[in-house]
Design brief:
Low-confidence stretches: 1-26
Distance between the termini: 54 Å
Helix content: 10-25%
Largest sheet: 8 strands, antiparallel, barrel
Order of helices and strands: HHEEEEHEEEEHE
Length: 170
């Protein structure tokens, strides 16, 4: 069925208008977020949890879009030597793969429904000075975004799920 031009124009204009939910997004990113979960979907469809079933994570975003983010696997092994400079290869691997941190600025691309992280520094040095784009959903104070397979370098899409901490709880 073909719509009359006037109807199609009104429909297109209505769809292009920001909704109340979209307008809420940027303001809703400001504050503190705790990680609810993190998981990976591999190219073969299998699901893993590189940071464990209940990772610890904190994301903070200020009013100007500066952010910092930390994710840690619970139960990472301590270094037997007690010295950060004298770990075994296995201890270094667990420490590196059991955490993810980065900071910089973040913005919302409402047109594409994406978060755009401009990474200043990161525990994964390949991201430093780069822009990282994440498709996201935001529902009932829960932010979920996908780290695309191209960012992982191994064909895996990772998902991070964050819950907003209301000001009264801080």
């Amino acid at each position: 069925m073909r719509l009359p031009y006037a109807v199609a124009a009104v429909l297109a204009a209505t769809l292009a208008m920001p909704t109340a939910t979209q307008a809420q997004d940027l303001a809703s990113l400001q504050g503190r977020w705790v990680m609810d979960s993190a998981y990976e979907i591999h190219a073969d469809g299998s699901r893993t949890t590189n940071y464990g079933e209940h990772p610890k994570g904190l994301l903070t975003v200020d009013s100007s879009g500066h952010y910092n983010l930390q994710i840690f696997r619970i139960g990472r092994p301590v270094f037997a030597s007690g010295d950060k400079a004298k770990g075994t290869p296995e201890e270094y691997r667990a420490a590196a793969l059991g955490s993810s941190t980065h900071f910089g600025t973040v913005a919302i691309d409402r047109t594409r429904h994406q978060l755009v992280f401009m990474v200043e520094a990161a525990s994964f040095p390949n991201w430093e000075g780069k822009t990282q784009v994440r498709d996201y959903t935001f529902t009932d104070g829960v932010l979920t975004y996908a780290v695309p397979a191209s960012a992982s370098g191994n064909g895996t899409t990772a998902y991070s799920v964050w819950r907003h901490i209301p000001d009264a709880v801080r």
